[in-house]
Amino acid sequence: MTTRLFGTDGVRGLANGDLTAELALDLSVAAAHVLADRGDFAGHRPFAVVGRDTRISGEFLEAAVVAGLASAGVDVLLLGVLPTPGVAYLTQKLGADLGVMLSASHNPMPDNGIKFLARGGRKLDDTIEIAIEKRMREPWQRPQGGGVGRVTPYAEAVDDYVTHLISSIEHPLVGLRVVLDCAEGAASEAGPRALVGAGADLTAIHAIPDGLNINDGCGSTHLGPLQEAVLRDGAAVGFALDGDADRCLAVDHEGTVVDGDQILAILAQSLHEHGRLAKDTVVATVMSNLGFVNAMREAGIGVRQTKVGDRYVLEAMNISGYSLGGEQSGHVIMSDHATTGDGILTALAVLERMATTGKSLKELASVMTRLPQVLVNVPDVDKTRADDDAVVAAAVAEEEAVLAGEGRILLRPSGTEPIVRVMVEAPTEQKAGEVADRLADVVRRQLAL
Q: H/E element holding 156?
């Protein structure tokens, strides 16, 4: 079986190990052939926009990507350091044939990744990714002379994106004291500028990237520093972004974490009240807390659940015309303003809700009661048998009877590793843990490699 290059969010790996300059160049040539091919370039010269996060490896990978695109006859606008949603926005705004973002999101600094965006700033579907992989290293007619692409810096990238972000809200944020953790990443300039421009009294932390410190003990995967800063500054709220700022988690004024499910619930209720929630439905994944689902239904809001991954949330939104979706991890997609998850946009929307209602984040988050959730990873098992094993299925049915409708069980094979994830929600942490441990033992015995 051939291993695919593209994972759930582009091509990702150890920079200069798995992800080399040569691979980046070859991928970019193939992507140019697939995404910039209009069949007839008469009167139109294809062009791309390229952005990156702050990783030091992004510099040489950017050079390789640009070389590949230009050698294939594609003009390139260099956006510099910009969040993934900023690259998506400018792909759409500038009418580019494709966008490229160099980032490994929340991964450690040594990793990096290449994300391609189609026209309109949309993520690629599987068929396009497969087509790009098939075109790699194929013989092709190389343009020469004036046919090669030109490379031009686009100095207005951050300005354009920040203007777009501020325009997404109607109510000024004056009087709200906010802490923003930029994760030493792609939003270190755009994030603070957007929140200050919208009127917030801002303290920015981890906003001095040096190419080496991205996600290092900070950002959405390390919330401790944000909690400390919120309590120290007496702030009303804190937000933490990840390395490419396509997701956001929050902390209330008491230092309590507010996760993606709670943020999604706050925004869904707000849009619903204003008649702007398309089809009165929000899209979430099967990992969303049962408390979220219950709260939405009590508010008269439908919940459409998908497989885990923001690409599946986006797919459901695009197919059915929904306007809001997201994940527990903090990916929130507001299709009225963006084609992908946007952490800064999410923070602005939550702050506007606080400003217009006069309520604290703690009060707003109380719209849902989170059920205790326990996740156990069972490694070194045959995940392909997880859905079909009769003994595992019987054990799940038995434990569901124990929960008696007051909880939920989900067994989910990992997409990348020989792991089965056992997730249990129950009225208490102890009960959830006991059920999860018993099921994990069954999975371990039955599916052992």
A: none
